[in-house]
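Section 3.1 - Work completed
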Amino acid sequence: MEPSPSPRRPFTASIFLLGATTALTAVMIETANAQTSVSTSSSSATVSAQAVNFDIPAGKLSSALVAFSTQAHVPLSSQTPTLAGKMSSGLRGQFTPSAALSHILSGSGLSYRVVGNNAFQVVPASNATNITLGPVRVGGTITQQDPTGPGVGYVATNTMSGTKTDTPITEIPNSIYVVTKQLMQDQQPQNVQQALRYTPGVYAETYGTGGNGSAYGAQSGITQRGFNSTQFVDGLMTYSASAGETAFLERIEAVNGPASVMYGQVNPGGMIAMDLKKPTETPLHQVSLGFGNWGRYEATFDVSDKITKSGDVRYRVAGIGVTQGTQTNYLDYHRVGIMPSITWDIDRKTSLTLLGMYMYTPGDGVSEGYPLTGTLLSNGYPKISRSLFIGIPGLNKNSQKDAMFEYQFKHEFNKYVNFSQVYRWEQSYYDVKSSYYSYAPSDSEVEVGPWVRQQQNTTSALDTRIFGKIDTGPLKHTWVVGSDFRTFNMPEYLAYDFGSTDIINIYNPHSSYGNMEYCFDYKNPNCTVNVSNRKNNWFQEGVYFQDQIKWKNLSILIGGRQDWVNYNYSRVRYSTAGNIVTNGAPQPQSAFTWRAGIIYKFDFGLSPYFSYSTSFVPQIGSTDYLGNAFAPLTGKQLEAGLKYKIPGRDVLLTASAFRINEDHYLIDDLVHTGYSTDGGRVRSQGFEVSANANISRDLRVVASYSYTDMRFAKTNQTAQRFDPYTGSNYGGAVSESGMSVPYVPRNMFSVFADYTLPRNIMRGFGLNWGMRYVGSTYIDNVESFKTPAYILFDVGAHYDFGESSPILKGLKAQLAISNLTNKYYVTACGTTECYLGQGRRVYGNLTYNW
């Protein structure tokens, strides 16, 4: 059944689609007529076409400029009266001369311009000719100074995700943390959850090696400030687990706090924003071979180059193939994927990028939970082995196919008005044949039964916006007005065989794995089966505006958004007891969200800020026992903080304190089984501090501490406390009001550092080390019991063979070990099961860049 949106919703989307088509057509015609008149400065091309290997230490700017001129073999002069007192953070790697000089001058208040055919002149920033730098190559890594690029080292200074405009992080009045490409390369995460391990306010592995936590996944197990996270790719919400493939990502950002004003349906804890790899202006050629424990073998490639001689048409192709076992028996992970893309710079004001992706994951390597006894508790029994497979061998298929198409179009009409549009279509197909465990007959046994699922998710999403800059007297405005919409369709087939079960001895599973015969034919009277065919459809549209107002060093941000959502569903249940047909009535919901913030940037780099923001998430697909739809989840946040960017240094320090209230969260209706009820209000409050620093050319550090106190603030719900030793409730009913929300660690701390040894000690060799602490969490709503805190250590090493021999230039070896001590730990527990964390993981690779 298709959604039935109100007339004004498709009208708004149509207006923006019509505008996009008209703009694109006009630009193409204009370009065709003016193509021959567009030219590129020969001098600019001469000084910036060839990448050069730089090795410039941090120190005085004057010394850095002398070293730059010598190593680049480019004449350099200065128009500035003095360079005294100015510092540079240095430079190391392969850069084009123009990009290298831009980096050296970063934070100094100076810029440069091209003089003649092959020379540079340092000038005050206000006198510089506008120069747009594309991506540059740094030691084989693509590094581009733009808000969707990989950042430099461990520091990214600009972002698009916070405001949908290119804005310095130090001018945005809320918390944004960037996982740069360099950080991912040093840590070698194999999915998004692992990449977020060192991010403030984010608990990324709630479900350990289960819940899409082992092999991939952007949807499960990630929380921000205690709330479930929402994932976006290139600014559009995604439902595809392939979004967690780090081989295709340029960077990952955690926007902590409500982001509904710009993105719509986002929980108040925040969102995870990911940017896909796109064609680079500087050629990139990279291949790698990897290996690891549990029989992991991996091959990747990443190639980008010009198609036309002028470079106005460029391509990029990234691919991955991987196979491995896991720490759990009978569960394997296999994946092949490819992502081609092409960018056409139609003219100097217009560009079009097309991306495609296909991913096949015949085994996802995801495990299920384990019983409390043997994990959280002993009860006289030894610990359950992480290799234990609780299920039916041969009934452990969990495969997925993902396809995606995306385009990004940009056009600058003039210095006041710009146009941007991003569209993505994606489809995921899941085929699951697995087993579940229903209860434990004893502390050493579990009962399992078979189930199957086929599901297909199809999403179309479009974001269209007009933005620009304008001055009104002393005020400088960066404004944006836009609309986005999304359609989602999910047919699902689900079947449980309740008549076929096995009893598995968790300490001697091989003796109890049987050849179970299962039946999913609901027409067979000898089967006890429940089959469900379900269809879910929803349509969402939002219209938003935002203005960033700047007066001298003071910035004010204000924005608002109106959302409309319509949801339909139908379900047919077949069973041996009879058939049930359910057709849900449309559930339209709407909400207005807004935010406002203020931030002041002192000349010495400190930026204090304060902000207020709201969020909206429709609660579709659920009703109370009377059939009434629930009110949307609504959140409100107050946040205050400090950001400090040390002038002339790649060091960004942040601190923030927040308080979030969310109303209308749902809990199970204990009186009417199978239904939900309004739980009241949840409150999350705490603070975060973090540091991202390229301390020198050889030393990079990230560190953070998060304190999150999340409680049921306003509720009339009660529950009995649970005794995990006996597996039963005890005592009288206890009010949930004021109790901690389960699965949310109150304290988290992490630090990670990478150091390349001095050349006179060992040329090209580097080490890294990290520590992660996650505090205890409660198992239920009335603080019955805690899972213990745990601390993990990660180490790694890397060696650049090119430092020892020019013949081996571009070849690099790397080793990354997570959970060095192989600590056995529990990430979270409920009243019936626990999730185990990943044991020691060893991964190494050889990478070649040319």
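Second construct:
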Amino acid sequence: MRYYILFFLLLLQTAIFIAPSAHAQRGLRRAGTVAQQDTPTVASQDTALVAGQDSVSLNPPQGDIATTIKYSARDSMQFEVDNKVVHLYGDAKIVYGDMNLEAAYIQINYETNTLTATTLPDSTGKEVGTPVFTQGAETYAAKRIAYNYKTRRGRISEVVTQQGEGYIHSEVVKRNENNEFFGLHNKYTTCNLEHPHFYINAGKIKAIPNDKVMAGPFNLVVGDIPTPLGFLFGLFPTPKTKRSSGVIVPSYGENSARGFFLNDGGYYFAWNDYMGTRLTGDIFSLGGYEVQANTDYVKRYSYRGNLNFSYSNFKNDEADRAAAEGRARTTDNIFAQLPKSQKTFWIRWSHSPTTKPGRGSFSASVNAGSQTHQRVNYQSQAQYLSPSFSSNVSYQKTVPNSPFSYTVKASQSQNTTSGRMDFILPDLSFSMSQVSVSELFSNGPSTTNNWYDKFTLSYNVRASNTVTNQTPARTRSDIPILEPAAADTIPINFSNLQRLWESGQKQAVHTFGIGLGNYKIARFFNFSPTVNYSETWLDEKYSFRFNPDSQRVDIDTTSFGRVYQYSAGANLSTTVYGTVNFREGGKVEAIRHLVRPSVSYSFRPDFADERFGFYQRTLVGRDQRTNEALYQDLGRFRAGLPGTGLSSALSFSIDNSVEMKVRTESDTAGVKSEKVSIIDNLRLSSGYDFARDSLKLSPIRISLNTKLFKFINMNFNSTLDPYEKDTLGRSIDTYFLDISKGRLGRIANAGLNLTASLTPETFRSGTDAAPPDNLPSLEQEPFAQMLPDYVDFKIPWTLNLNYSLNYNRSFGLRGQTNVIQTVGIDGSLNVTEKWKVTYNATYDISNQNISYANVQIYRDLHCWDMSIGWVPFGLLRGYNLTINARSALLQDLKLTKRSSTGYNY
């Protein structure tokens, strides 16, 4: 009975606002609210009249309605009081808590607690107003929706819903109170089109929002063509987090060196949102395998990193048989280029911190492993050809509010060709940044203008231990004895750790930087004096004595030594401008020449002098022909020795730049001026050492860089020898340089590099002028020759051209000239919005061959990607074809055909 009273009040409210009989008239907009209250009330809202919409507020008593139901309709609302049903026509909308429902027609049944939404035919008979159901972050679009707001269950017909990156097209869907839904006759796809390019056809599907989608027996359909690819069940994760565990399906291929293979198959472990491990492996039909563990980790605002470990069992039966039989391997097959069977490993670790003021930062870059691992398991040409790798791990911190900082570091380097490995462990440093002397010995910056206020001081000390697994051919590289010892290699293993540590070179290097300030001389010259001092503490010091009986040099060793060196110098520089103005009205307004000359002087004593004690002149034997005594200066330390010889050198350089000011015309700004660079920089430099007894003038170096036609960068450098040569190619103390004849010296080497970067914008002018109407047809002679060389087809493209020339000349009886020329090209071409081609190639003009070439073709297939790669020449020649689903959810849905790892395909 209460429901009848409520509907009567609703009818009365409607009659007051419009007319007693207009409650079902189309064309009027209605809105209503059903709210749960203990006492029913009727509210009148004048504001609804201003908005052109009547409002109805119904307040039923306690019942099955959990919260307020708000509804509206564009055309009309009809009420069946006896049946407790409300009909909403035209753009009907209902809001019930976090649930929203929109459709052409909605029915509210208070008796059964259901909402029903469907489409309606328009005047042409076309169904319009597709129901859209939204609850929280989920949205469903269907032809018919039935929803029970009490049980929170629903039935949806012909629905398309999105779960994660996937879309589910279902004939019928039932939804329960846990937001799980069950679909009948389904299509699961990552294609967002109404008619998808491909889908997984499954009779039954269960979807758990933000978790996973489970399917019964299914098969793959591509282009509406069913395929036999499928399985008894399927599981597709749809988590909110970016990481999820799952199987990694391998790709397959073939190459001549290792046969058929399955590559990169395994499992991904998503430990949490911040860390995941990818465990994969490769297996080859000719024997061998490789296992990789790759872990990514990140901590927001703190650090991120990656750790990769690879273990390989490489098989080469051809090389093994040749070694067992004691014969040389043939060179007519690919196995001859590879090493024998072996087990290798490689580790890569990168760790990057987020720098925060006042906090220390730990960083790592490790790239190390077995000597031949990179050669037999390489992934790129650069990786295969790289002869050396380096690693370092460090912790660095700057003391807040002070100039002090310290670093703790360990580093390693290895040469994969020679097998040499060097370690610096530990590597400790402490430094003080440059501060003024007055500030250093006071509580703050100086407020006076004393002459010493410009003096600055910086300091750094580095203590390290350098260990190598290979000793040089001589017992010590800087101690030449008459009978050098053979090279010695120390294997890297735990049993040799003590031996490696004892063979290390331990030292501490102190460096002082003393700044004496900058001064103006005669207003236009800058004068900067400098003083440098460094001191090295070493773990060993040697004393030499020639033993005439054994004809060898005996060495006595002490446990500590000290070496120091110092130098002083000064620099004088200025800038000179020169401008030439032209008459008004011309294209060129002015040309400016900028000259920056600089002169420096440096002095360093001869640290081989006996008073320093760093070198010892010792008898090392007698000349067998003349029986004369042979003496030599022997360094008394293994490392850190200063250079020998007195140096009193004057060096100079002149930098030049030329630019032009030209007049340009613009439709918007009228006449304006523009600066054009003619020469970016032209530099000439050399030096003169007063302390030498001959050949005091240093080689003359010339360099030039500029830009031609606004898109060609040119770089040129050359070294000129200013002295004459004898018949053996040695310099003699006679100048070849002759300024009166325009000779600066003989060209010893030179290099030229031209680089051009072209795009469609390169050829476009600033204004697009419309062609005159009276131009004759370009197809008629002789106007055909007027066709432009460049036609803009509105196709985005890039083209980079590179030309390199290197010239080297040697003098003497066997003097020769070596010229190396190469031409390179690379770029991209977007043929259409869906097709893209990239290419690069290098041609060696000197040897007349193509050094490297690569072509990549990309095709956008909407929800698929296709790529074709081809390397036609060189060690890495081969091809690959890949077609894969674009979505990361279906990344293993792909087809790959590959002839890789370079060898003959």
